[in-house]
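Consider the tokenized backbone below.
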């Protein structure tokens, strides 16, 4: 299974480009993800993870994600390589985003209303649902 869950801050605004073959949008950005432990007397370390988001998810990221924001990304690790014009081989490891979330708390003055702060996730049930909320006492198991 290849599944990655990351939470970190954007190191730059997402960069958008389009594929040559079928003009598909792809957004790329980098997340600074803090390491869990800090050695005594040292500053907290962070890893800088490259993220790519395709099509509608890439459009969402490019439109709403900005440098410094804390975001969550769920996706998969991908490695690829290519040879440049000088014959030099290049290798890159990146996360291909499948879901993206805002992880900052909402500040006053930011876009509000009924905006769904996730993209790529299952939709939330509406408040006017036909289902009853159970206390758990009457469950058959």
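A designed sequence for it:
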């Amino acid at each position: 299974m290849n599944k990655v869950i990351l939470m970190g801050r954007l190191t730059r605004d997402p960069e958008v480009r389009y594929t040559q073959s079928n003009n598909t949008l792809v957004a790329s950005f980098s997340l600074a993800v803090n390491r869990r432990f800090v050695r005594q007397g040292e500053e907290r370390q962070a890893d800088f993870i490259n993220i790519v988001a395709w099509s509608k998810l890439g459009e969402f990221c490019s439109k709403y994600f900005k440098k410094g924001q804390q975001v969550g990304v769920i996706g998969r690790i991908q490695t690829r390589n290519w040879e440049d014009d000088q014959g030099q081989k290049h290798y890159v490891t990146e996360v291909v985003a499948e879901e993206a979330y805002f992880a900052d708390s909402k500040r006053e003055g930011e876009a509000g209303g009924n905006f769904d702060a996730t993209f790529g996730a299952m939709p939330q049930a509406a408040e006017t649902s036909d289902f009853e909320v159970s206390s758990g006492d009457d469950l058959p198991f």
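Residues 12 and 67 are 4 Å apart (CA to CA).
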